[in-house]
Design brief:
The chain has 10 helices and 8 strands. By secondary structure, it is α+β, with helices and mostly antiparallel strands. It folds into 3 domains: about 120 residues, Sufe protein. Chain: A; about 60 residues, Arc Repressor Mutant, subunit A (Orthogonal Bundle), CATH 1.10.10; about 80 residues, Fe-S cluster assembly (FSCA) (GMP Synthetase, Chain A, domain 3), CATH 3.30.300.130. It has a 3-stranded antiparallel beta sheet. A 3-stranded mixed beta sheet has the order 6-7-8, covered by helices on one side. A hairpin with a 5-residue loop joins strand 2 and strand 3. Helix 4 packs across helix 5 and helix 5 packs across helix 7. It is globular. It starts with 5 loop residues before the first helix and ends in a 5-residue tail after the last strand.
Length: about 280
């Protein structure tokens, strides 16, 4: 029995946005019934080019249904550029985590979203294969680019992890040497970059607070205010940044996703990669 979070079980038993959209703007289809998982995702844009409606149909396990349901809730109201930045880790975090053996379900959701956006942007009306590069795992039709991507994005280092995230190598095993070669190459490429990275002088607490305030004002609040939301910087305790959402963001069902994918992501990008953002109610 898999150890599912309450949120995964909720989205499995009560999936949101199941069905079809009449005359959708974008449609993406990934997976295949023969592989055990298949997902079709479609969306409709409003006059401001934001995702006004999104629906899905999937054949798969509880994690596949929950991941698809969660993804549709996450991207509603986003522009396509914002939706393109949603990662499989964002989907898993929105659900409070997935068993590692089921992470491929979050990857499938991200792939379907990308395929639907590609369908909208190119005008193609047929199902597209996301990857036109060589197939590494023929049992599950996993291309080289997908293996490279999941390894890099999720910092994977073992064959077992790759199988958990994209199924490659999970059947006959004939592709395991090829997968290991891809892992070894990416790990080898990463080491020189890590060694060459200069050691930065640590920020003082005052410098850190000022920089956080600057990024909040410049990079974060304008995005929140555009949709009627806002946030207040409450405190900075070491690498923990305490905030409180205001406006429509206060109590929003997607506030945890906004906190991680917008606020924390921006602060980690422009201030320090070790920063952790919590809401005021979560602070001790």
């Amino acid at each position: 029995m898999w150890d599912y979070t309450d949120k995964v079980l909720d989205h499995f038993h009560n999936p949101r946005n199941v069905g079809k959209i009449e005359n959708p703007d974008g449609v993406g289809q990934v997976g295949a019934l023969a592989c055990g998982d298949a997902l079709t995702l479609m969306f409709k844009l409003d006059a401001d080019k934001r995702i006004a409606d999104v629906k899905f149909q999937t054949f798969g396990c509880a994690s596949a249904i929950a991941s698809s349901s969660a993804l549709t809730e996450m991207v509603k109201g986003m522009t396509l550029e914002e939706a393109k930045k949603v990662t499989n880790q964002d989907i898993a975090e929105f659900l409070g985590g997935l068993p590692e053996q089921k992470m491929h379900c979050s990857v499938m959701g991200r792939e379907a979203l990308e395929a639907a956006i590609h369908n909208y942007e190119t005008g193609e009306t047929t199902t597209r294969s996301i990857s036109d590069d060589p197939v590494i795992c023929h049992c599950f039709d996993v291309h080289e680019s997908e293996i490279v991507r999941v390894v890099r994005e999720n910092k994977l280092t073992t064959l077992e992890q790759v199988t958990n995230f994209c199924k490659a190598g999970g059947a006959c095993g004939g592709c395991k040497d090829d997968i290991q070669a891809i892992i070894d190459k990416i790990v080898a490429e990463a080491k020189p970059a890590e060694a060459a990275a200069p050691t930065a002088r640590p920020m003082t607490q005052i410098q850190k607070i000022k920089k956080i305030e600057e990024i909040v004002e410049r990079e974060i609040r304008p995005i929140l205010k555009r949709d009627g939301g806002d946030l207040e910087l409450i405190d900075v305790r070491g690498d923990e940044v305490v905030i409180a959402f205001r406006g429509v963001c206060a109590g929003c069902a997607s506030s945890s996703f906004t906190r991680k994918s917008l606020v924390e992501a921006k602060l980690r990008e422009f201030v320090l990669p070790t920063l952790v953002v919590v809401e005021e109610r979560e602070a001790p």
